Amino acid sequence: MNMYYNKIRIPLLTALFIMMILDLTGVIHVPAFVIFAIAIALIGYNIYIRKNRQSGTQNKNN
């Protein structure tokens, strides 16, 4: 199940990192809203994954 989550997280994290580097070096201009939106989406997705993982282990133990 962990590999499925990485299929979504790794490309988003890579895109965020590349956009931030290109923006800081002046190659392209990325609006701050886009960077914050992707960062917030990644944080929200990580929280969702952790909640699912916790509830999944609790259900297996019962």
Automatic annotation (TrEMBL):
Q: Which UniProt keywords apply?
A: Membrane, Transmembrane, Transmembrane helix
Report the transmembrane regions from the record: 12-45
User: What name goes with this protein?
Assistant: Uncharacterized protein
- Please name the source species: Saliterribacillus persicus
